[in-house]
Amino acid sequence: MEKANSPSLQLEQLVTQPISVTDHEDAFSYRENLIGALLAIFGHLMISIALNLQKYSHIRLVSCKETKAYFRTKTWWCGLFLLCLGELGVFSAYAFAPLSLIVPLGAVSVIASTIVGVIFIREKWKPKDFLRRYVLSFIGCALAIVGTYLLITFGPNNHEVMTGENIRKHLVSWPFLLYMLVEIILFCLLLYFYKQKKADYIVVILLLVALLGSMTVITVKAVAGMIVVSIRGNMQLGYPIFYIMAVCMVATTTFQAEFLTQASQLYDVSQIASVGYILSTVIGITAGAIFYLDFIAEDVLHICMFCLGCLIAFLGVFLITKNKRKCVFFEPYISMDAMPSMQNLHDNGTAVQPELKPSFSYGALENNDSISEIYTPATLTVVQEEHASCRIMSHSKSE
C-alpha cells in the first residue's frame, strides 16, 4: 500500500498520461488568424484613406488659382505615407494567416472607400436623392461586413512554417504543376484574343489581372513568411527560392498594374473594382488551396460557411460599386470627325470624301475662286419676307 502511494509511482503515472495538444493548437491557429486578419483590415483601411487623401489633394490644386505641384502639398505626402503603411500591413498579414483568408479581405478596402468618399462629398442632397443614391451602398456595406465576419470566423487554420524547403516542395508538387500548366495556357489564350483579336472586354482584361494576381499572392506569402521566420531566428534568406519568389512578385505586380491601367482607360472604375475583386478573390483562393493546401484539414461545415461568406462579400461589393456615380466629361467643342461634310476615314485608310483643295479652310473662310466650275455650289434664290408693313424682296444672283 505504501509502495502504491509512493511519490515515484505518482510521477510515473503523470508522465504516462496522454497530454492533449488540440486546445493549444486551436488557440494558436485562432491567434495567428486574428493577427493576420487585423493586419489586413488595418492595411486596407490605410490604403483607402491614403488614396482619398491624395485625390483630395489633387482636387484642391485644381480648384486653387495658383499653380503648385502636387508633391509639394502636405496632404499628398501624408497620403503617400499612409499608402506605404497600408501596403506594409497587408504584406505582413500574409505571413501570419492563410492565403485564402487574406485575399477576400480586400472587401474592406471597398467598404472604407465608400465611407470615406461619402465623408469627403461636399454637395447638398434631398432625402429622396439620398435614398435613391446611398441606400444600395449602405446595404452593400452591411453585407460586405457580414461576409468579412464569416470569412474570419470560418477561415482555414493551416499554419505552415514558411521555410525554403517547404516552399520548394510545394513548387514541385504535381497539383501545383498541373495548376500552372492550366493557368499558362489560359493566360496565353486570353492574351492572344486581347492583343490580336482586339477582344478588349472587361472580363478578358481582368482575368489576365487575376491570373497574374494569383502568382503575386503566392509569392508575397512566401517572401513575407520567410522574412518572419528569419526574424524569429531561423535564417531563410540564404535560400535561392527566396530571391526567385521576390523577382516573380515584382514582375507580376508590374504587369498587373499595366493591365489595370489599360482597363481603366476603357471602363468605369466601379466596374473594374467589382469584377476585379470577384475574379481575383476566386482565383486567389484557388491558388492558395492548391499551393499551400489551405483547406486540407478543414471539415465540410467550415468550408461551406467560408464559401457563404465569400458570396455575401461578393454581393456587398457589387451593390456598393453598382450605385457609383459615373463621371460625365463635358466637351465644350465638337470634334472634327463628328462635324458633317468633313473628311472621314475608313479602317483601311481610304477617304470617304476627297479633298477639293490643298489648303485647310472651312465655313465662311473658304476660298472658292480656284475651284473649277463643276464644283461650284448651286445658287439659290434668297427670299426675305417682312410682315405687316414690310415689303417682300426677292433677287437672284446672275452669272
Describe it:
- This protein is mainly alpha-helical and 399 residues long.
- It is built from twelve helices and two strands; from the N terminus they run ααααααααααααββ.
- α2 packs antiparallel against α3 (74-96), α5 packs antiparallel against α6 and α11 packs antiparallel against α12.
- The chain is globular and about 60 Å long.
- It has a domain at 161-293.
- It starts with 6 loop residues before the first helix and ends with a strand.
- Mean pLDDT is 76; it is low at 9-22 and 327-399.
Morphology call: globular
Overall pLDDT, averaged?
Answer: 76
Succession of helices and strands: HHHHHHHHHHHHEE
Helical content stands at 55-70%
| Spans of at least 5 consecutive residues with low confidence | 9-22, 327-399
**Reading side by side through the largest sheet, how are the strands ordered?**
1-2
Structural class: mainly alpha
- Give the biggest sheet: 2 strands, antiparallel
Radius of gyration: 33 Å
Number of strands: 2
| Number of helices in the DSSP assignment | 12
Strand content: under 5%
C-alpha termini separation = 144 Å
Keywords: Membrane, Transmembrane, Transmembrane helix
GO molecular function: magnesium ion transmembrane transporter activity
Membrane topology: Multi-pass membrane protein
Family: Belongs to the NIPA family.
